[in-house]
Design goal:
Order of helices and strands: EHHEEHHEHHEEHH
Number of strands: 6
Largest sheet: 4 strands, antiparallel
Number of domains: 1
CATH topology: Outer membrane efflux proteins (OEP)
Shape: elongated
CATH architecture: Up-down Bundle
CATH class: Mainly Alpha
Radius of gyration: 39 Å
Strand content: 5-15%
Strand order of the largest sheet: 2-3-5-6
CATH superfamily: Outer membrane efflux proteins (OEP)
Structural class: alpha+beta
């Protein structure tokens, strides 16, 4: 790949290079990757054990002056207590399990966004290549009509053709100039559309699609087990599966709320007694156990919300699989239809149009046909070539749509960074 800022006025770019740049610099994908960090932070929070609480309190503090001596020897009741919440029912493990599945779901979401981005870059790249070819065709047509106009002017001066025929040629030549202007504008728009997906803002006017038009092989349609395997390995479906697993963990966590947590505490109490010279006779230790009493509420709302969340996750999975199957079926139908149109245009229509144009050229040079007949044949040839180019574009887009629809990944997303 030619580096940005190279001295050459053009920046030739293959489709693979364009997709690689987009995966690295696309703004939407970069933003989506931040959600992975957020999900990992939630995983850290979910797996954290509760901290103990330290309580220091003093009471029975007399406002009267009790004379000299240190503060520790005065009759002040001081209590030092440490309390620790002990979670039961596997709540911490269930929170972490749900958070892990959410991380996997977010990672699959980002993978799916990358899949869609590669498809969008492919379409934009094909549009750029189409714009380049249309501009080249427009320039060739203009140059050819300029030659025909010059030849017609010479024949008019020689009295061989009428002035009206020359003016008709001139009209076509002016239209060809308009076509060049339109093609230049479409090329600039195609370059900017691709640059936006690539996440670049420099050297946009130098972008050149360097790949040749592909000759994709038509794959066999996916059915039965092979279709189900491809669908199951797609990142959007994997994300939906992970969210069902997260919902399952959430449901078990809601049920675990009915398992009572216990808070245990240890305390040390210091309360010097009168006549205690060392201030130690009033020291004592103790412990406490605290647990909730489910007398009014038994977490029915949390359990119902978890069940609703799982139902929603299941519906999302069904929808993801249905969308994937529809995309695959539509992509295969479009691919086979486009391949047939390319074959017909290339092997039949274009061949016939070129033969007709060659025959008209020969007849015109020998005075057998007029200039208008020649221009009509040329218009037909140009329209046929544009139709063939459009069919080729449609085939290329259909091929990349098929690749995107059937793109799968078997790797297991990493949880830790």
């Amino acid at each position: 790949m030619q580096a940005l800022g190279a001295t050459d006025s053009s920046w030739p770019l293959s489709l693979a290079e364009a997709q690689s740049i987009a995966l690295e610099r696309n703004h939407d994908l970069q933003l989506a990757r931040t959600t992975i960090s957020s999900a990992r932070a939630n995983l850290e929070v979910a797996g954290a054990a509760p901290n103990p609480n330290l309580t220091v309190s003093s009471s029975s503090i007399s406002t009267a002056n009790k004379g000299g001596g240190g503060l520790w020897k005065r009759p002040i009741d001081t209590v030092l207590q440490i309390a620790q919440l002990i979670e039961r029912g596997g709540k911490r493990e269930l929170r972490r399990e749900g958070a892990e599945q959410q991380v996997r779901a977010v990672q699959s979401d980002v993978s799916d966004l990358g899949r869609q981005l590669r498809a969008l870059v492919a379409r934009a790249y094909i549009d750029l290549k189409l714009a380049q070819d249309k501009r080249s065709a427009a320039w060739d047509n203009q140059r050819l009509l300029d030659v025909v106009l010059s030849a017609a002017q010479i024949r008019k001066n020689a009295g061989d053709i009428a002035g009206a025929d020359v003016e008709r040629v001139r009209v076509d030549a002016l239209r060809a100039q308009n076509d060049v202007s339109v093609a230049e504008s479409e090329l600039a728009q195609a370059r900017r559309a691709l640059a936006l997906l690539l996440g670049i803002s420099e050297h946009i006017d130098q972008l050149v699609a360097s790949d040749a038009w592909p000759e994709p092989k038509i794959p066999q349609p996916l059915t039965g087990t092979s279709l189900d395997e491809v669908i199951s390995r797609r990142p959007d479906v994997r994300a939906a599966v992970s969210r069902i697993a997260a919902a399952d963990a959430g449901g078990r966590l809601a049920q675990a709320l009915r398992t009572r947590d216990v808070t245990v505490g240890m305390q040390y109490e210091h309360f010097p007694q009168p006549g205690d010279a060392n201030g130690g006779n009033g020291n004592s230790v103790g412990f406490s156990v605290q647990m909730p009493l489910f007398t009014r509420y038994y977490f029915q709302g949390e359990i119902l919300a978890a069940e609703a969340g799982r139902t929603s996750a299941q519906q999302a999975l069904l929808r993801a699989r249905a969308v994937a199957e529809s995309e695959i079926g539509s992509a295969w139908s479009a691919l086979t239809a486009a391949a047939e149109r390319v074959r017909r245009n290339r092997d039949e229509l274009l061949v016939a149009a070129e033969k007709a144009a060659d025959a008209a050229e020969y007849a015109y040079r020998n005075g057998a046909v007029g200039v208008m007949d020649l221009l009509d044949v040329r218009r037909t040839l140009r329209a046929t070539r544009l139709d063939a180019l459009a069919a080729q574009v449609e085939l290329s887009k259909a091929w990349h749509a098929w690749k995107a629809a059937t793109e799968a990944t078997m790797d297991t997303p990493e949880i830790s960074q």
